[in-house]
Amino acid sequence: MTRIGMGFDVHRLVPDRPLWLGGILIPHELGLLGHSDADVLIHAICDALLGAAALGDIGRHFPDTDPAYAGIDSKLLLSHVVSLLAHHGYTISNIDATICAERPKIGPHIDHIKQTLAPLMNIPPTAVNVKATTTERLGFTGREEGIAAYAVALINQA
Ligand code: MG
Question: N or C: which end of the chain has fewer CB within 10 A?
Answer without folding.
Answer: C
